[in-house]
Amino acid sequence: MIRKFEFTPILGWSVSRWETFSACRRQYYYQYYTKFEASRDRENFLTVKALKDLTSIPLEIGNVTHKIIEILLKRMQKTTKPIDMRRFDDFVFEKTKQIVESKNFSEVYYEELETIDPEVQILPKVSEALKNLLGGGRIEWLADKAVESKDQWIIDPEGYGECRIGGQKAYCKVDFMFPVGGELHILDWKTGKKDDKKHGRQLRGYVTWAYFHFDVPAEKIVPTVAYLMPEYKERSIKVNEFDVEAFAEQIREETEEMYDYCEDILQNTPLAKSEFPMTENLKLCSFCNFRELCGRR
Ligand code: SF4
């Protein structure tokens, strides 16, 4: 049973929050404190909000793929009959169009592309990722080993994955968790490149999340990152109770560092925008949604 929390405004650590904070303080301010611009700089606020909502081709490839995997897993809970691949392809095509049609893409906003055609820019990679998954052996393994516990599967749980790590508020949202033979397995789907450092931290976060919510020894939790492209490949790590404690300490330090940028920690009110400097790493700016505001387009 996933534990629930009363809302509190204090900031919660997450891998992506910490990564944004580490990469560029100004991006962190725009991304996580957008609403404060409404009272501080009303005109800028509307632009920040619009830029924050931009998506990108790689993000949507990941988003659509995750949504369809979620549907596939929910189908598996009802039936393990083979998939009719012709109908599946039609479904993926329609779903891709439906998901991306209302989105605003940074590639269009920043005039790198005139328009986005989902059939050209999104669908081929989504189809490749799904075919790799379906042919990668994990789906058969699930049908064979995990389907008997299908009522206990947690597939893309609601909310943001709030938990407590060493008493600190944190967010670690799993894609898919299921029990097999006394172990809790966690699978995290990736359509992007391998990144051992970042994904290793995410996996430790998932173990800590499951450890917190389900009171299972860390050694019995098997976190796996599943790379869907260019071919299906998995990487699992082993985590013990000491790792969970060390991870909690790290989260505490990182959270404290982020607190230093709060005027009011409990209310999570940020310092003035001028206290959040722009990065010197211009490479980062070329992929950042907010580059127009920083004069770095
Ligand atoms: S454009 Fe560059 S400096 Fe501005 S928020 Fe983005 S990463 Fe930071």
Compact overview of the structure:
The protein is of the alpha+beta class and 297 residues long. The protein is built from 13 helices and nine strands.
What's the topology here?
Elements: H1 15-23, H2 25-32, H3 34-40, H4 42-52, H5 57-78, H6 85-100, H7 106-109, H8 118-121, H9 123-135, H10 138-146, E1 154-155, E2 162-165, E3 168-171, E4 176-180, E5 183-190, H11 196-214, E6 221-227, E7 233-236, H12 241-259, E8 262-264, E9 269-270, H13 282-285
Parallel strand pairs: 5-6
Antiparallel strand pairs: 1-4, 2-3, 4-5, 6-7, 8-9
Helix pairs in contact: 1-2, 3-4, 5-9, 11-12
The structure holds iron/sulfur cluster.
Structure, described:
The protein is an alpha+beta fold and 297 residues long. The chain has a domain at 149-259: Trna Endonuclease, Chain: A, domain 1 (3-Layer(aba) Sandwich), CATH 3.40.1350. The chain contains 13 helices and nine strands. The protein has helices at 15-23, 25-32, 34-40, 42-52, 57-78, 85-100, 106-109, 118-121, 123-135, 138-146, 196-214, 241-259, 282-285, and strands at residues 154-155, 162-165, 168-171, 176-180, 183-190, 221-227, 233-236, 262-264, 269-270. The strands form three sheets. The protein has a five-stranded mixed beta sheet. A two-stranded antiparallel ribbon has the order 2-3. A two-stranded antiparallel ribbon has the order 8-9. The longest helix has 22 residues, at 57-78. Bound molecules: iron/sulfur cluster. Residues 24, 26-27, 30, 278-279, 284-285, 288, 290-291, 294, 296 line the site of iron/sulfur cluster.
